[in-house]
User: Fold this.
Amino acid sequence: MTARVGIVGIGQIKFGNLSEYDLVDIMAYTATDALIDAGILENRRIIDQIFVANMLGGMINHQTGIASALVSRLDLEPTAAELVENGPASGASAVKLGYMAIASGIANVVMVVGGETMRKVTGWEATDCVATLGHPEAEYDMGLTFPALGGMFARLYMERYGVTERDLALVAVKDHENGSKNKYAHIDGTCTIEAIHDSPNAHVVNNYVAEPLRLFSVCPVSDGAAVLILVNMDSPIVEKFKKKPIRIAGIGSATDTHCMHNRKDPVEMGAVKLSAERAYAMAGVKPEDISFAELHDPFVILELAISEEVGLFPRGKAVEALRRGETGIDGRLPINTSGGLKAKGHPVGATGVSQVVELVRQLRGKAEKGRQVKDPRYGMSVNFGGLANNVITIICAKD
Amino acid sequence: MIDFSIYDKQEPKIYGYKCPKCGTAYYPATMLCAKCSNRRDPSGIVHPDWDKFSLEGPCKLLTWTRVWALPEGYDRPYLLFGIVEFPNGLRAAGQLETENPVTGMDLVAHVKESSERPGPPVNVFVFSDD
Assistant:
């Protein structure tokens, strides 16, 4: 039987424009918050292993060996450290590797750090860097960016399931409402359905980015970092931490075709479905056991589509739940309580880690007033790279 | 006799690939056939390379978008992109040049050389009305 793995420390810096700061400094600052949260700041050398998630450091920061740099910045030598690059899924991949290190017996305490500084370059440069995720000849050379792929996904999904642009705006309103109460979110303001859709002048503030996606349908370009400290819950070392562990109950991951056009049905995300099924099986739970979910929504349409792929709603029905308010903070199944990528922001290497930080905050009952889910038991996160071609689902439990 | 035609400017092409063992077609190229696991050797040195064929002609539009936030290099306000399906079942993504795109419409795929993005010229698909 493998060891149970729990989360005993969390840290997250407020996402946003941190371009004046050094990437590794941002990671180290946030890691220090996690060490304090776990109560091991002075005793930090009990950490056996660090996994650092970062996607674009080599391109944007012109820096490699980021894990080694972070260890020194935290005065943590000789702790083992490695970098994890798995596109925008790097964060959840690092969490998965942290889990595997403990479950395998290689480590008892693991620090997982996700960080990215995307605003050191212009918006189009950041978009171009992310576009290198696509197939070099069949996607990148064509001029395709991820908003373009998101727009094509959205059109097909919306035409098939009767989703309207107003529905997309409703997701944004909900996410920004949650994000406005999250002290770590990039965008801390709210928006109204009148301002971004219903008003005759709504198109002025909510112009098209990649039709049918508008400005309020896509996430901002963000800097940020998030950190978790994982522990072997079956080791006596767990007593050294002041926080009660939030258990990682299930992790599942899967991949899909590199090119979106090569999927049998471009709006079906098989890797999302499979990763969730694997996570449910490992956790021994079903979709109806999930109390709330953090779903990867760089484009708000994906919140609807992912929620169906993971079985929270029947296919094509998520939009009805949205319209009924079921996915709001006081609804039957709150989704993206942090504000999601849409409002919290999307510093790509940090995103998957920050989703799990949100699961822990909610399961501890420590989310801010007005966005705390009532008595949550299981939280789920879905983090992916590309347009769902590399997906990691994580389920955390409050025991 | 020396064949000087190899020095002529070549028409831009984008190729699909066909597994010589089972005939399954691919775009873009893969290294292993999903159907029969036959391997491809792009060098053609150790194993024969796969048959390649020019991918162009009639196709059907599956979905599309108009992108207003273009990457560096594009000197126009927006660009249309689409995913199409060819009669042989292969699909491709590329640029769209039609006034009123509608999902399901018939188009024709052409290949052009593009220098809009920084770096060396690349071959891109253009899907148009004719």
